[in-house]
Task: structure prediction
Amino acid sequence: QTISPLSTPPMVTCDDFALAFDIDGVLMRGGQAIPEAVDAMKYINGANPYGLKIPYIFLTNGGGKTEQERCEDLSRQLDVEICPGQFICGHTPMREMAAKYNTVLVVGGEGEQCRIVAQKYGFKDIITPGDIIKTRQDTTPFRKLTDEEYKNSKMLDLSKTHIEAIFVFADSRDWAGDQQIILDVLMSQGGHLNLRSETHDEGPPIYFSHNDVVWSTSHDYSRIGMGALRASLEALYKAVSGKDLNSIAFGKPQVGTFQFATRLLQKWRSESHGIDKPPSTVYFFGDTPESDIRGTNEYNEIAENDWFSVLVKTGVYKDGTTPRFEPRQICDNIFDAVKFAVERQQ
Ligand code: G3P
Ligand code: MG
Result:
């Protein structure tokens, strides 16, 4: 363990174990910090009986803003500095697909935010549902663009538009319109919007940034999320075309997302803490058994180190029920959860 010379009383940077946090239902709910989250952040940054500063990352399925912007919001809400180098959201791994496709349809999020995210990732030609509605208003008979949306959207030449892949970056704000447009693309000949496939199986691939059917907000009961849109689209596609839709989801619980997190954590520990060895244990704190606990447990089967799942009771999982995927520990809230992890390491 390395002693940090600048801190008084001397703090010890923990080079042994590390922490990974889910966000919604663990640290935040409905745009507000969960009260125990602020104390939990202080605790892991040295305000604990051992003066330990423990390296940590964030791994959320949420999205819809750039990582930089999301970190600025979180830093303010949790009263601690959080950098993009320790942050992964649902669409972060999608940046690795930017070189693969030229023209893509990007769906979800507020206004033009997801187009901006996609541009930052290096996607070259980004089309949004708004562009398609602006070009042909009767695409969505009951949805009209606002003046602002009309101004921001671009007119397309549909005879030349060839969508190579569909990316659902964030939650749809207009399920009916977005599903109509996604169906049109899926049922086209190779993504050519004005050519309909007779066999209904020549459309481009569709990627979702995660598959959470429900998520935790300020409402008493969990709200439907992107996984619900995916299920709805699959059912619609089957009803309309008679074929099964093969869609791909990123995010937790996918093993690839945890592998991505492992690489990020290694880089973060090395670059910001000078630790050049992998952590012996990574504690993952989540509220959703189906994504957080399942993902951590399944990754633990193949990971080189121990990925330890901790379920908190402040989000999707509710006290008194049996989680569908069993965590190694259940805690009331995130403050109790980080104290548990630190104590277990002593
Ligand atoms: O849309 C976000 C939600 O599905 C889950 O976010 O932070 O709990 O992974 P999080
Ligand atoms: Mg969550």
